[in-house]
Specification:
Largest sheet: 2 strands, antiparallel
Structural class: mainly alpha
Helix content: over 70%
Strand order of the largest sheet: 1-2
Strand content: under 5%
Order of helices and strands: HHHHHHHHHHHHHEEHHHHHHH
Number of helices: 20
């Protein structure tokens, strides 16, 4: 409406953002949060038990944390900003205005996180005796804390998109940030990140660490963290589900694209794998099967991916719940547009009024402004490709469906605009659905 649109016609705009975001979350959670907690715990255990070999392995793992977070992690972080700014400018603009000081704080905390990471790794050999070693450990603890704080701030912002709480009424920053799902979402992410790191590190230990003097302490650390994290994720996950709006809860299974029974069975299998993995890790760590570690690692990735997909999808028809629809139109502005016309209020639309001569072109402008956020014309997801979905529909049927689509499909935002604009959109969709491919 207020910004030019960019279209990825085959893959879909939302999928571009989702892929970049999931990769970033896996790194920021699994590596920056989970792996850091395990490495610092390993250094502490090495100091207490005077295990020099374990200390050196912790150093090598820190090197990989440094490499991965400052390359792929940093690039995907920038990628999220770039892609969302281009694809969802109204949404990201609102988040910047609502959470301006939170973003400032997050950037400061992130810079300090990187500083602590650099100090932590590059002082490992110089701060290795007596009080200097304790100082080095304290730097590691600060690194873990600031990594977690970075996630905490972003979680408050992202959670507000689903549960803005009283912010819709008060417009208060504090109501938005400390929203109903902030704490359960933060806790769930924290311990799931640790579970992801445990599964990854266990694979590494089983394949490459042969020295029992190092292997056994590591597996002991993993089992302790794992027992705490598994219980915490279950409790916090239940709390999270109870905190989301009822309408959003009904969309959880739908958002995965799986039948309900399949969805439940897959989650139960993954949860059972976690339990078996932790029991095996605690009782017979030397005999822990590598395939079980790999299965748990994939399950942890699946849970994080599922959490992100579900969190994004169940907000529909909103992108900021009860405030802004997924296409960037605010609920307050919708009434005005229904009266005056969508195109009249669009700052980037070349056509401001529908006529018989420009009906199809006007329909394309409306499609780009109101449908493009979720749909494509063609593309790999046939359920979202309108040329496939509407093929064979008479133009009159499309025209009749548009004003009522949000009632038939509650996850879709209502059409905003005049009767003439409904006719224009229907004319455009009928044309693209019946073109020869």
């Amino acid at each position: 409406m207020n910004f030019p649109t960019v279209e990825f016609p085959w893959f879909g705009n939302g999928n571009i953002v989702a892929i970049i975001a999931i990769i970033h979350v896996l790194i920021s959670h699994g590596v920056a949060i989970g792996a850091t907690a395990l490495v610092v715990s390993s250094e502490y255990y090495a100091i207490v038990t005077k295990n020099e070999k374990l200390d050196q392995l912790a150093k090598q793992l820190t090197k990989w944390i440094l490499i991965i977070t400052t390359t792929v992690g940093a690039m995907t972080g920038v990628g999220i900003w770039f892609s969302t700014t281009v694809i969802q400018p109204d949404s990201i603009g609102s988040l910047l205005r609502i959470f301006f000081w939170a973003w400032v704080a997050e950037w400061v905390v992130f810079v300090l996180e990187v500083v602590f990471l650099l100090i932590y790794y590059y002082t490992w050999e110089t701060w290795k005796e007596g009080k200097t070693k304790r100082k080095h450990l304290n730097v590691g603890i600060m690194l873990a804390v600031f990594s977690w704080l970075t996630m905490s701030i972003i979680t408050g912002i992202l959670a507000a998109k689903l549960t803005p709480g009283r912010w819709v009424e008060t417009l208060s920053f504090w109501n938005a940030f400390f929203n109903p799902t902030f704490l359960p979402s933060l806790g769930f992410r924290t311990f799931l990140a640790i579970m992801l790191a445990i599964a990854l590190f266990t694979i590494f230990v089983r394949l490459f660490v042969k020295d029992e003097e190092v292997r056994m302490p590591l597996l002991r650390i993993f089992s302790i963290w794992g027992a705490i994290s598994l219980l915490a994720t279950v409790v916090l996950g239940i709390w999270y589900l109870q905190s989301i709006p009822d309408q959003a809860a009904k969309l959880i299974v739908w958002s995965t694209g799986l039948p309900e029974k399949t969805f439940d069975v897959l989650n139960m299998i993954a949860f059972a794998l976690f339990i078996v993995f932790l029991f095996w890790l605690a009782i017979r760590p030397k005999k822990l099967p590598i395939f079980l570690s790999l299965a748990v690692f994939m399950s942890a990735i699946g849970f994080i991916g599922e959490f992100e997909v579900v969190r994004e999808s169940i907000r529909k028809p909103y992108i900021i719940y009860n405030y802004m629809y997924v296409n960037g139109i605010t609920a307050v502005k919708a009434e005005e547009m229904n009266r005056d016309g969508y195109l009249a209020h669009s700052t980037v639309a070349k056509i401001k009024k529908v006529t018989e001569n420009n009906k199809v072109e006007a329909g394309r402008e409306i499609y780009q402004g109101q449908c493009l956020a979720c749909h494509t014309i063609d593309g790999w997801r046939s359920k979202r490709a309108l040329a496939n979905r509407l093929k064979g529909w008479p133009q009159q049927s499309i025209e009749s469906f548009i004003p009522t689509m949000h009632q038939v499909r509650p996850m879709m935002p209502p059409f905003v605009g005049t009767k003439e604009e409904v006719e224009a959109l229907a004319a455009y969709l009928y044309k693209v659905a019946n073109e020869e491919k």
